[in-house]
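step: validate -> pass
step: tokenize input -> pass
step: predict -> running
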Amino acid sequence: MIPETMRQELQDRISSAITNREAAVDVMKALQTHYGWLTDEAVVEAAGLLGLSPLQVEELATFYEMIYRRPVGRYVIHVCDSISCWSMGGESLLRQIAGLLKVTVGATTPDGLFTLLPCCCLGNCGQAPAMMIGNSIYGGVTSLEKATDILHQHRRNT
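step: predict -> pass
step: emit ->
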């Protein structure tokens, strides 16, 4: 259950939107931040706030790849696999990070710190290959050394 202050903030967001559905992603992201992922309880809460059915919220949630319907690590690493990033070594970057973390793509490290996911596009084509951790985008991640430094930065921040 979300705190009353958060509920009021979300209701304010919804009321300022042209339609409730327009505010759905904001509501899901806020609930995801609160719970760590979009739990079944959060889907029902979002539906109630938005005046939608839980199925409608589920449909929206599964459409957006940055809405997580299962538990994820504290930091979610998205490695871009668009054509620009792929052609500049994005696929290799994804494999290298998986090796560094000793996980398969889609998995979370045993300490719960990192989840590694491919991403359709990060909109950083001019600095391919790109990756994103949380809300931070890193471009030109062409070496294992740079990827390692980025991961170490996040480990130190915990």
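step: describe -> The chain is about 50% helix and 10% strand.
step: cleanup -> pass
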